Each structure stands twice: as C-alpha cells, then as structure tokens.
Amino acid sequence: MYSKYIKRIFDILFAIILLPPVLFVIILFGFLIKLEDRGPVFYCGKRLGKNGKVFKMFKLRTMKVNAPDIRNPDGSTYNSIDDPRLTRIGKFLRKTSLDELPQIFNILKGDMSFIGPRPDLPDHIYYYEGDEIKKLDVLPGITGYNQAYHRNSVEWKKRLENDVYYINNISFILDLKILIRTIIIILLRRGVFNETTHTKSIKINATE
Q: Which domain of life is it from (predicted)?
C-alpha cells in the first residue's frame, strides 16, 4: 500500500511544495554555469527506470562540454575530487549535491521518486545477477539507502546489494531514516567522491 500509492502521493505533494525554491536555485546556478563556459545548463543522461524503462534524468551540468566518459573497473562512472572534467562551479555543485535538484522534474513526470535506488546506466541491465534485477521493481530516487549511508564510497556491486535490501524492506520509517541521514551526510559532505584509483575510458559523451 505504502510503496504503491502513498509514496507516490508524497512525492507529488513535496515536489509541488519544493518547486519554487528549487527553481530559484536552478536559475541562479544555471546563470553561473552559463557564465563560466557558455555551455548548456542541463545534462540529460539516459538512465534505467522502473521495469527497465529508459528515461532522461535531468541534472545541472558539472562537467566540461564534450568531456570523455571514464568508468571504474566495475563499469560504474568515475567520480573523484581530482576529476579534470569538472568545471569550477561543477565541483561545488557535486560537493553540495545541488546538481541533482532538476530531478524534481523527473519526479513530477513520474520517472523518479525522492527516495529509491539511484538509477543505473542503460547498459548496466546486462550485468545484473540474481536478485539484483529487483532494483527495477521500484522508481529510482534522488537519494536512497546507498546515498544515506555510503554516498559514493562503495563499489557498484555493493550498491546493488544495498538496493535489493531497500526494496525488500521498503517502508515509511525506512524512507524517513534515509531522508534524515541524507540531509546529515550532505551537510557534513562525506563520501561525495569515490576515490577508485583504477579507471578505464570509453569513447562516448560524459555520463555525470
């Protein structure tokens, strides 16, 4: 009942309430992004949604225009404080997670929830094993169990394990705990970057 109906009602209500301040922040940082390199304000990356549906996830652009895609050995996107692809304003947006704010539009569209597993890249569906496919049983979230307790400090397979745990135990209380933990960890700026040292590059556009 909660995961199927009540959670979606909460998403819509909170998205509408938060829309005015979120729009203000987006406009402010959109101006700063444009001022730095004249490139696009938004990054729209393809992601896996509920039931395997591919959708475009909105973010404020944090990387330089036409930056190369760099992956960790497990196939997850590379994310480091020393990433040369980040713009100056992009580093601040990543540290504060403000780059995720445009995903409020994904919530209103029905592609995402405030809380749920973070969406993977479309090609990751071929690497799910066993119960990991259950990740696609629910809407992906702006934040989730991994972000609340680990941010980007654990490898992709461990994140999938945590996603399955969340789906098997989803409840209002768990979502509330995740929300509170997310606020705390963002304020403390812990685990923002995954300091994986060995990476591999592939020749496609950047995936933020």
A: Bacteria
